[in-house]
Structures are given as structure tokens and as C-alpha cells.
């Protein structure tokens, strides 16, 4: 077995979490590390929806149905880019990820 490395990271909620990576061979060093507590886009959106400070960017339109609306799409995308350490994140890229969720049945588009 290889060495395990633990790194502390700050989550979008300001909490500390740990990232563990294990390297089994020199070739494994070129692969992407596996994160123990990766934040998914749907979790990030729910965090924003739960916090009134972000109501100018994203808000529930019909909370009882789980329906929400992005009010400031570019700002939501910018913040998602910060969380994922992707400086080039924009709404076009964020919307592609959301459309992927449509195909996975995680999010449904409503009109």
C-alpha cells in the first residue's frame, strides 16, 4: 500500500473537512485525487437556498415542490467556481452541469 495524505479544507459553510488521497504508485500521482467530502453542485445550490443572504441570487419559487429560480446566474456561477477552484467558471459552464443533472434525474426543468 502507498502513503496516505490528509489535508484540511474549508467547506462552503466555513467548516473544516479533510481530504484524503492515497498514492499507490508513481503513475497514481498523475491521476486526480479522490476527495472524501466533495461538494456537489446540488448541495451547493441547496446551501445557497437555505441562506437568506443569497436570496438576491437564488430563491425558492415554490419550496413545497422543490422549485427554485436563479436570479443572478453569473454570480451563482462565480461562487461555484470559487468552491471548485475554477476561476473560469461562468453561467454557460454551470448550466451544462445543471443540464447533466436533468439527464440523471437529480433536477427537473420547469417552465
Automatic annotation (TrEMBL):
One of its GO terms (cellular component) is nucleus. Residues 39-111 form the ETS domain. It comes from the Eukaryota. Keywords: DNA-binding, Nucleus. Coiled coil: none annotated. Gene3D superfamilies: Winged helix-like DNA-binding domain superfamily/Winged helix DNA-binding domain. InterPro entries: Ets_dom (IPR000418), ETS_fam (IPR046328), WH-like_DNA-bd_sf (IPR036388), WH_DNA-bd_sf (IPR036390). It is found in: Nucleus. Pfam families: Ets. Its main location: nucleus. PANTHER family: ETS (PTHR11849), ETS DOMAIN-CONTAINING PROTEIN (PTHR11849:SF133). Belongs to the ETS family. This is ETS domain-containing protein. It comes from Exaiptasia diaphana.
Amino acid at each position: 500500500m502507498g502513503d496516505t495524505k490528509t489535508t484540511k479544507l474549508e467547506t462552503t459553510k466555513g467548516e473544516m473537512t479533510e481530504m484524503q488521497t492515497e498514492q499507490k504508485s508513481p503513475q497514481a500521482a498523475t491521476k486526480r485525487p479522490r476527495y472524501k467530502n466533495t461538494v456537489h453542485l446540488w448541495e451547493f445550490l441547496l446551501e445557497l437556498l437555505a441562506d437568506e443572504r443569497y436570496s438576491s441570487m437564488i430563491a425558492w419559487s415554490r419550496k413545497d415542490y422543490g422549485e427554485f429560480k436563479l436570479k443572478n446566474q453569473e454570480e451563482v456561477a462565480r461562487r461555484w467556481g470559487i468552491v471548485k477552484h475554477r476561476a473560469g467558471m461562468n453561467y454557460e459552464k454551470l448550466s451544462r452541469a445543471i443540464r447533466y443533472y436533468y439527464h440523471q434525474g437529480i433536477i427537473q426543468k420547469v417552465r
